[in-house]
Amino acid sequence: MKYFLIAGEASGDLHAAHLMKALREADPEASFRYYGGDCMQAVGGTLLAHYRDLAYMGFVQVALHLRTILRGMSRCRQAIAAWRPDAVILVDYPGFNLKMARFVKQQDLCPVFYYISPKIWAWKEHRIGDIRRTVDRLFSILPFEVDFFERKHHYPISYVGNPTVDEVAAYVARHGQPRPDGRTIALLPGSRRQEITDNLSRMLEAVKPLCTGPQAGAGWQICIAAAPAIPRSFYSRMLQRAALPEGCVELVEGDTYRLLSHATAALVTSGTATLETALLGVPQVVCYYMRCGWLVSRIRPYFLKVPFISLVNLIAGREVVAELVADGMTADNARRHLLDILPGTPGREAMLRGYADMAARLGEPGAPARAAAEMVARLNERKQQG
């Protein structure tokens, strides 16, 4: 069967790639066309557009690149209509993907599956109407979403487990259990230029005393996880401005799991990375700076419908990791919370216990295989029914 997939960022590209592999296992005749990235391209099929050319966040960035985004949407519609796939599979990225779902339904082309559902439980809850009208089956990777969709909105979904559990488990099987070296602090500042700009500068300021102050004698190594679609020169300019001692900071490209497996602690921009960091057992501080942060902090209760922003806390149902959001994300705050989770501190042990609780709620590996099996079964059933 023919599958058209759309993933709009680095984490979606990775999850979609694993789903494609699982679809090939369930359907040996599977063929793929997609909007995605390098991970999906490595699996095979035809890459029609790279997510880096369409992934813009924030009102200003979207407005500045609106023509590019609209052109991408138009070409995507044309590609789906011309190829006539057996299914369109959407991976997160709701601003783009829900419009594609609407088009597919209006044209009555094929079933629409949503893998990694839009986070409407956090904001834009009104999108449940669009999902109900345009998505044939939603595949959830977060256990608390079942209550939200099924109990609150009476919209049945499939919880298949979390693919990050699979990815971490596969890494550990290949490389062994994480072994913190006692000297590495990992910085994971995000995957988009704007969030990296906003967060990395503050992260570097937070850890600077570990390289230049009284604690520098401990030999701390600061390692930055570089996003795959961001050039090295972008980070180099930020490091020059930070003026940390030569040799204190290392840029790690394309190997975030290896970095985390040796890290003692981490500063992490909110997103899938917080979950990866937790599953690899690295105590962390969640950081998400926003411009006009003082205003965001004051209006946050009015538009954000959940008490936390990190997946770790949302899955655990309580505060396991500290969250520094908007104007709360300062270098001083990040440094203070980081020192609270270094080896030998009560905060570190409490966080690791919280991680264990969170992992139990997520369940066992196998999310892509479970999702793929159900997708193929639904499509086969549809064909049998004519």
| CATH overall fold name of the largest domain | Rossmann fold
- Quaternary structure classification: single chain
Question: What is the overall pLDDT average?
Answer: 91
Shape by Cα distribution:
globular
Largest sheet descriptor: 7 strands, parallel
Low-pLDDT sequence parts: none
Q: Can you say what the CATH homologous superfamily of the largest domain is? A: Glycogen Phosphorylase B
Listing every helix as H and every strand as E from the N terminus to the C terminus, the arrangement reads: EHEHEHHEHEHEHEHEHEHEHEHEHHEHHH
Number of domains: 2
Helical content class: 40-55%
CATH architecture of the largest domain: 3-Layer(aba) Sandwich
Number of strands: 13
User: What is the CA-CA span between the terminal residues?
Assistant: 15 Å
Give Rg in angstroms. Answer: 21 Å
Strand content: 15-25%
What is the number of helical segments per DSSP (H or I, 4+ residues)? 17
Which structural class should the secondary elements be placed in? alpha/beta
Main β-sheet, spatial strand arrangement: 3-2-1-4-5-6-7
User: CATH class of the largest domain, please?
Assistant: Alpha Beta
Entry keywords:
six-stranded parallel β-sheet; alpha/beta; globular; 2 domains; 13 strands; Rossmann fold; single chain; seven-stranded parallel β-sheet; 386 residues
Describe the 3D structure:
This protein is of the alpha/beta class and 386 residues long. The chain has two domains: 2-161 and 366-384, Glycogen Phosphorylase B (Rossmann fold); 177-362, Glycogen Phosphorylase B (Rossmann fold, 3-Layer(aba) Sandwich), CATH 3.40.50. The chain has helices spanning 10-26, 38-43, 59-64, 66-83, 94-106, 128-134, 145-152, 163-175, 193-212, 232-242, 256-262, 272-279, 293-303, 311-316, 331-339, 346-362, 367-384; strands at 2-7, 31-36, 46-50, 87-91, 112-115, 137-140, 158-159, 184-188, 221-226, 249-253, 265-269, 284-288, 322-325. A seven-stranded parallel β-sheet has the order 3-2-1-4-5-6-7, with helices on both faces. Strands 10-9-8-11-12-13 form a six-stranded parallel β-sheet, with helices on both faces. Strand 1 (2-7), helix 1 (10-26) and strand 2 form a beta-alpha-beta unit. Helix 9 crosses helix 15 (331-339). The longest helix is centred in the middle third of the chain and has 20 residues, at 193-212. The mean pLDDT is 91.
